[in-house]
Design the sequence.
């Protein structure tokens, strides 16, 4: 459990009140991006949406002009080599993580992502707070600064806020169409749809496996793939998103 002094607790509470008060998807993201630096010092704060299949990143940044077109192109070119993108795309429930948790300072400064991207921005300390993470898609709030690394306490505070930030993001996406932050739609396979249909009906993984004549691990793998395609982190959110897509499809038929 993260223990905050009175001032820190008030700041965290005010941050969550501001974000939850936002009514539009863009406002939810913007409040989070602008509010996080008031909790943890950050010179550039972003919501970064890394589409690993396309090799591109979409980004909402604060300040808004912090990342130029050439910088974005450099990041896209090296997206698969980024230490934090690699970690969160391959580690389930990885939590808030600093670049210094992944590689040494010496190794980071030798890395192309530092020379061609971070050094140009005047940044050498980075921490990412994932809201959706999987092999094809990593969506994170990212705090960047120069000099003093993010402390264990700052990392723990951001990680404590992560579940709420993830849920707020998903609810915002369900409430509207925020094109910049929505992952590129990837069709579900027939088997993934079958699994989600039974999950939405309240069946456990074991029950779904028995119904479909598959192993529990196969069912779980289909679910993991569906999470990435739907931009969610768990079975409840996946079932909700699947039902919403199904209703929308029926209403257009």
Sequence:
């Amino acid at each position: 459990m993260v223990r905050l002094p009175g001032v820190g607790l008030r700041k965290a509470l005010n941050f969550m009140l501001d974000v939850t008060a936002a009514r539009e998807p863009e406002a939810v993201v913007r409040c989070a991006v602008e509010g996080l630096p008031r909790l943890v010092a950050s010179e550039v704060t972003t919501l970064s949406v890394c589409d690993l299949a396309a090799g591109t990143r979409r980004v909402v940044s604060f300040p808004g002009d912090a990342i130029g077109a050439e910088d974005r192109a450099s990041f896209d070119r090296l997206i698969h080599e980024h230490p934090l993108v690699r970690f969160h795309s391959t580690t389930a429930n990885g939590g808030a993580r600093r670049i210094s948790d992944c590689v040494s300072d010496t190794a980071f400064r030798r890395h192309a992502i530092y020379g061609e991207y971070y050094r140009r921005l005047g940044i050498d300390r980075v921490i990412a707070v994932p809201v959706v993470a999987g092999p094809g898609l990593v969506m994170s709030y990212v705090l960047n600064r120069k000099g003093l690394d993010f402390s264990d306490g700052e990392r723990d505070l951001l990680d404590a806020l992560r579940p709420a930030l993830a849920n707020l993001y998903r609810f915002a996406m369900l409430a509207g169409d925020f094109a910049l932050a929505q992952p590129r739609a990837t069709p579900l396979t027939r088997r993934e749809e079958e699994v989600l249909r039974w999950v939405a009906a309240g069946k456990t993984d074991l029950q779904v496996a028995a119904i479909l004549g598959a192993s529990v691990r196969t069912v779980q793998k289909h679910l993991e793939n569906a999470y990435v395609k739907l931009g969610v982190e768990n079975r409840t959110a996946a079932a909700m998103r699947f039902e919403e897509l199904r209703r929308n499809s029926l209403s257009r038929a």
